[in-house]
Amino acid sequence: MRARTLNLYTRILLWLLVNVLVLGAAFWLVLQWQFREGMQGALGGVIGDRLQTIGREVHARLASLPRTEWDSMLREFSQKNGVRALLVTVPPRQIAGQRVELPEKLQHLLADMHPELSRRPPGAAPPEDRLGRPPPQPRDELDVLLLGEDFFPPSDRAPPPNAEPREGPRFDDLSNAMPVKLGTFMLPLGTPPIYYTGIRLPLVPSWHRREGPLIFMIITDRITAGGLFFDVRPWLLGLFGAMAVSALLWLPFVSGITRSVRANMHATEQIARGQFDVRVPENRGDELGRLSHAVNQMAAQLDGIVRGQKRFLGDIAHELCSPMARMEMSLGILEERLTDSDALRLADAREELRQMSSLVHELLAFSRSTLASATKPVEEVPLLSLVDEAASVEAIPPLKLRLHVPADLIVRCIPDLLRRAVSNILRNACLHAPDSTIEISASRQGDQVRLLIADQGPGVPEESLPRLFEPFYRVDTSRDRQTGGSGLGLAIVKTCIETCGGQVRVSANEPRGLIFEMQLPRA
């Protein structure tokens, strides 16, 4: 049994899918490389840029609202994005938004961001710097918005001469919480992780710098925050969109290839069944076009060879008819002049001559069955009457024949050829299954008519079934008078049916016997 395979277009689309999956794997590796340093690597890329944008938008909203409306603004932000949003400051305390108990590690992180502020009580004046100067005071609204950067750790500034070394931030085990962009961090805590994301905001007019820096906190259980930080939907839509567009772009190209392959496949299947008049369109200039041209040339040459052989057989058989007829006439004249003992020998010679004459007639029929399509027209014939005629010619008793053919079933065929094919099958059944009942049935199958002729004889070995329609092939190779036949009867059946535009096949009948199945064009 031949294994089921995918067609060419499906294979190409699957190969395209594999290509896209490889690109997706490469994209995943890039993401893994970006996260190789934990959240620091992520914040240094797309998510970090997005957090900076969110910070600017929130700062603009806070700057345009009084402090009494900050809670409602943060509540609206939380509901819109499916997160928890709040404002905190250093020393760690909540200013506005949903009340959340800040984890101890988060409080340490906030304190480490501003160690100079984390050890003074709320509302106390900020300490002087290392040179004894008080912190700068904002001069106007513009300065207030820009002075927020003074609250960042001045780790990137050169220390003044003779200054005592400053104690570095205490990160303990918070390696993933290292700020990458100034004032931006993401801290995962717990299992499954909860992501605490902080964005350092510049000062706003309604917030005094002595009260500490403003840090906008976003708490979520997903690293993408449902698309707020990083939206994967455009990437997925782009991926599947690229596949759809690629499939549409490939459709004309692949359809042309598969159409040409199917045409060549159909033509070679027809040639394998002995139908050499099939032709393939030669409308391509590539290798497939050359293949179509080669298939057409092969079919034409095979058609010429087979027709020439059959015509040659017909000519030889026709030329043999005349001398054999003269020989039989001479034997008849000679028989009248011989004694009884010599007449018996003459009868044997006449029987041999009749066997030879029968073989010659079979050769003529085999040759003419192929060439008849050029000389005899196709007609619409009631199948029941044609089968009755064939059964009458073979003198099959009615009790031995079961006929199940609808009277209104009309087939398109060359009547002489189809009648001869049915007669040969019936004769073959009577010869090899003399005590069997022959059953003939027919039915419609779309634009075809299915004709079955079954017997319950001894049958043939399974390995011989595919060769029964070969010329001169016989299961019994002795070919003596008892087994009879020349081995051309079923070959003539196949040629007649194919000349009528149909197909014939044989299979084993259960529990014994053979079934001949013919597919004929329906009128």
The tally of helices reads: 13
What characteristic shape results from the CA principal axes? rod-shaped
User: Main sheet: which strands, in order across?
Assistant: 2-1-5-4-3
Overall mean pLDDT: 76
Strand content: 5-15%
Structural class: alpha+beta
Counting DSSP E segments of at least 2 residues, the number of strands comes to 12
- Note the gap between the termini: 34 Å
Q: How do the SSEs run, as a string of H and E?
A: HHHHEEHHHEEEHHHEHEEHEEHEE
Provide the low-confidence segments as ranges: 125-161, 163-181
Helix content: 40-55%
Rg: 48 Å
Please summarize the sheet with the most strands. 5 strands, antiparallel
Core attributes:
Heat Shock Protein 90; five-stranded antiparallel beta sheet; alpha+beta; 13 helices; 523 residues; five-stranded mixed beta sheet
Describe the protein:
The protein is an alpha+beta fold and 523 residues long. It has 13 helices and 12 strands. A hairpin with a 4-residue loop joins β3 and β4 (194-201). α10 runs parallel beside α13 (489-499) and α11 packs across α12.
List the helices and strands and how they pair.
Layout: H1 8-34, H2 39-43, H3 46-64, H4 70-81, E1 84-89, E2 93-97, H5 104-113, H6 115-118, H7 141-146, E3 184-189, E4 194-201, E5 214-220, H8 233-272, H9 287-335, H10 340-371, E6 379-382, H11 383-393, E7 401-404, E8 410-413, H12 415-432, E9 438-445, E10 448-454, H13 489-499, E11 503-508, E12 514-521
Parallel strand pairs: 7-9
Antiparallel strand pairs: 1-2, 1-5, 3-4, 4-5, 6-8, 9-10, 10-12, 11-12
